Amino acid sequence: MPFAKGKQRIPWLVLISILVPALNIAGHTCIFIYLRDASLNPIVYGILAILWGVVGVYAIYWSFNWVIEQYGDKWKRRIQPYLFVGPCILLLGWLLLIPTLRTLYMSFFNASSTKFVGLANYGQVFVNRLLLTALRNNLLWVVFGATACIVLGLLIAVLADRSSFEKLAKAIVFMPMAISFVAAGVIWKFIYYYQPGDEQVGLLNAIVVAMGGQPQAWTSMTQPWNNLFLILILIWMQTGFAMVIFSAALKGMPEDILEAARADGAGEIRIFFRIIIPYISTTILSVTTTIIVFTLKIFDVVMVMTGGQYDTEVVATQFYRQFFMYQNFGYGSTLAIVLLIAVTPVILFNLRQFRKQGGF
User: Fold this and answer.
1) Are the beta carbons of 219 and 226 closer than 8 angstroms?
2) Measured in whole angstroms, how far is the alpha carbon of residue 262 from the centre of its chain?
3) Residue 124's pLDDT is what?
4) Strand partners, 109
5) Are residues 173 and 291 in the same domain?
6) Range of the domain at 56
7) Which of 20, 56, 305, 320 has the largest CB neighbor count within 10 A?
8) Nearest residue to 203 (alpha-carbon basis) of 221, 220, 189
């Protein structure tokens, strides 16, 4: 009997709407306590955790959906979206929103979080020499790293689409995306490796010596060259991402537009700038903002390659040092908020582009 027509069912629906979530919470709490306190073989722990994760999540959604099915169509349509989106929102709030608010709160206190200092930490941001260097380096990563990724990704996408070995070329360019930034940092650390003397085991220095040049300490050179060598790693990794997105956008271009332009006598360069770029401009903006976010948050490559030494510090590595190494919780939290403020406008712009394209 539908909820709207059977008022006598209201107590029953209210009861099961309270009882089913309560049973889920109680049951999963008991399982958690058992797994926490029991002394089991690590393999058994792993198997039970996987089973609990898969079966438990299925049981939660199945039981909640069963409750909603007891309602009439009107209320079912209203409640079901919250059933499937609600847990995600709660999880994101728990993992992202609450830590963000706590970090913001800590940024107004001193190093030990015992004394309120107001905006003093934020004022310190703009007079600290190391942080000014970090901000400058982040700007270098955005200007050179993001720009190179976009330009190379677009050029490779256009050229590969017209070549006979398109799949092979795209696979080679996209391959670095399969590894993490930490792994990429380790690989390039061996490429840039420098040791005094004639024998060089680093790939780049071995090539330089073989050609009659002098080996260089590439990552400890004077500014800004050492940062540019680090930015090259980002370009190596993210160009494949840009290429794939641009290639998908180019595949969606109507071929008759290009054929009409060629029939009118337009050259390939003019077609590229006057037709292709305007047609995929929204895709270019989306990819650009996404890569800018990557560059603003860059941490792994710098930490693995130099640890922030030799004036290669960025905001994320400076935050890590202040918060986790120096235990300066107030200033470290301030750097995290500064980084969040820098990234937020780019993310909002990206979300607006998605909305215009019908993504929301």
Assistant:
1) yes
2) 40
3) 83
4) 116
5) yes
6) 7-106
7) 305
8) 189
